[in-house]
Design a protein that fits this description.
With 595 residues, the chain is an alpha/beta fold. The chain contains 22 helices and 15 strands. Helices cover 44% and strands 11% of the residues. The N terminus is likely disordered.
Length: 595
């Protein structure tokens, strides 16, 4: 195996990294893309083929409940005599497993063992899925017995990565570090890897290598492309064990990797300038399986004092509730259905950001405003929150316009705004949309910018018909927005979740910069702030045994910190204090608007 395996592999570790793979998308019920042993299995006719593919489409779209129901109906409709019946049964079992119903999945799969020989492709699929189901049920010995024979057969793609990641964790659990490293090595045969996954995998491999004898250590370092002096961070006794639960599969995988990357940076696991505070051990779990409560329970058993929730709403609610029940400190990185004092709400709601912009407008003394928003649930919700924030202020909303989500031309809307002549304009849009809208507003002379508000002699031109203030949520903003559109946005007030690597005048906002030219997102910033916050709190407690969940919960409520998502402080109910982060565009820079 070449020594590029960890550099080029897809880093996945169940239990400590990944548990589930992307839903299957099979055009002929044949996943040849990951498994060269696969056999084409065709339905008995067009109706069976159509129904089966429809169910698979639901699966690939992440609609697991609908997919499970469709596969169940397929089996009832066509019966055991249908050639696709065993495969549909296997896929239905997988849906049940991902829906946190592993016992039901096992009941479907077990009868197939006797009818599907192990040496056939479908027999292997049945055993693979049953092994993963037994893993979900924490039947480690049974899972290892079912999955180990498949290791050399399935080597690539998401399904292969899931298999090897699961086996690596199983071998780790039974005290076979070299076998676990062999599975990590096989993961490296995949062609892509996300930086967060790779960095975490390197640390786990280093920890396993430390359990080997001298000659074996050297051999495995060479095979995995690890530097001679590279050591596992866990050699320093950690005062903090932070459980991080994020999606690492499916449509939300990119969200999980971003949160992970920020958390790794704050924990000194991605290099760069060392952050102050005690050593941190990150215990990573994949929320894609849906078994969030059991993941929190597992993290509690591993000694985690702190739980960082997934950035997705349902999972954030489940994780925080389970953490509170177990007496752990939870930091929510996503919106939640309800609020409770045992969880710190790190993510500011969209509503709070819209209303912060509304209050800034109230304080500006301007009298009229228009709204231009995408016709999406996000655009509608932000517009509603903004207008509600103006209630009782006397400010008149003179126009509310909407545009298609993928629109790139806004000329008709610009003309309507020119006629309405509002003092201000609220734009609940992404940074990319803000670039387009602001440039077209400026070109039409509807906003007062340097380009259109000065005459040939350079003197300012007063035009009361122009929009005097732009307000925007500027989702995903970064360096590009200022570089391309700052001349159109002078004086604009923005309420992003974070400002990426951009410095902000007035301090109180930490700069998150990986030093690689890659722009951090708001999810990077949330992961970074969460780990940095608890590290700082643990440091103030004196580290070591002082950093209990209860003590950390009190410490973070009395602390304040300049975060990448803005000033960090919390009230007794666990809510962030102060208004949402507001910044003003000044030249080519940003200035913090203090509450």
């Amino acid at each position: 195996m070449p020594d590029q395996s960890l550099r080029a592999g897809r880093a996945r570790r169940p239990g400590l990294l990944l548990r589930t793979a992307l839903p299957l998308l099979l055009l002929t019920a044949c996943p040849r893309r990951f498994d060269p042993r696969a056999e084409e299995i065709h339905g008995s006719g067009p109706a069976a083929e159509s129904d089966f593919r429809s169910a698979e489409t639901l699966f690939s779209d992440g609609k697991l409940g609908e997919a499970e129901s469709a596969l169940s109906q397929f089996r009832s409709k066509f019966g055991p005599g249908e050639p696709l019946y065993p495969l549909a049964t296997t896929h239905q079992a997988r849906a049940l497993r991902l829906l946190s119903r592993p016992a039901d999945a096992k009941a479907l799969l077990t009868p197939l063992l006797s009818s599907q020989p192990a040496q056939t492709w479908l027999g292997s699929e049945v055993r693979r899925e049953l092994g993963l189901t037994e893993y979900s049920l924490q039947s480690w010995d049974v899972a290892l017995r079912l999955l180990a024979p498949l290791s050399a057969q399935i080597v690539d793609g998401d399904e292969g990565a899931e298999l090897h990641a699961t086996l690596a964790d199983l071998y780790r659990r039974v005290g076979q570090p070299e076998a676990a490293l062999r599975e990590y090595e096989r993961l490296g045969q995949s062609k892509s890897v996300r930086p967060g996954e790779l960095a975490y995998l390197r640390q786990q491999s280093l920890s396993l290598i430390e359990q080997l004898s001298g000659p074996q250590k050297d051999e495995w370092r060479k095979r995995l492309g690890l530097q001679p002096g590279e050591q596992p961070v866990t050699e320093r006794a950690p005062s903090l064990r932070v459980g991080l639960i994020v999606p690492m599969q499916g449509r939300d995988r990119v969200l999980g990797d971003r949160v992970l990357r920020g958390a790794l940076w704050a924990a000194d696991l991605l290099g760069g300038t060392k952050q102050p505070g005690p050593a941190v051990e990150l215990l990573l779990r994949d929320s894609s399986s849906g078994a969030v409560a059991s993941l929190v329970a597992d993290l509690a058993q591993q000694g985690a004092q702190v739980i960082l929730t997934p950035p997705t709403k349902a999972e954030a609610s489940q994780a925080s509730a389970e953490a509170e029940k177990r007496g752990l400190l939870a930091l929510s990185l996503g919106p939640r259905d309800g609020q409770s004092g045992g969880t710190l709400q790190l993510l500011r709601t969209n509503r709070s950001r819209a209303q912060a912009l509304a209050q800034h407008l109230v304080q500006s003394g301007l009298k009229t405003v228009a709204v231009l928003a995408p016709n999406t649930p996000y655009g509608q919700a932000m517009s509603k929150a903004f207008v509600e924030g103006l209630s009782g202020s006397g400010i008149q909303v003179v126009q509310e316009l909407s545009f298609a989500e993928q629109a790139t031309t806004f000329l008709a809307d610009v003309q309507k705004l020119a006629k309405a002549q509002p003092d201000a304009l609220f734009l609940p849009v992404s940074a990319n949309q803000l670039e387009l809208v602001s440039s077209q507003l400026a070109a039409a002379g509807v906003v007062g910018t340097y380009r259109v508000s000065r005459g040939p002699d350079g003197e300012p031109q007063q035009d009361k018909s122009r929009i005097k203030l732009l307000l925007s949520s500027a989702e995903g903003m970064g360096e590009r927005l200022l570089r391309s559109s700052s001349r159109y946005l002078q004086g604009a007030v923005l309420a992003p979740l974070s400002v990426g690597s951009l410095p902000v005048g007035g301090t109180m906002v930490a700069k998150l910069d990986y030093g690689s030219g890659e722009e951090p997102t708001s999810l990077d910033a949330l992961g970074y702030d969460a780990v940095r916050l608890v590290r700082t709190a643990c440091q103030r407690l004196g580290g070591g045994a002082q950093c209990t969940a209860a003590a950390l919960g009190k410490a973070v409520r009395t602390a304040s910190l300049d975060g990448a998502t803005g000033p960090l402080s919390f009230d007794e109910a666990g809510q962030r204090q102060g208004g949402a982060l507001l910044v003003r565009v000044e030249g080519q820079a940003l200035e913090l608007i203090r509450p």
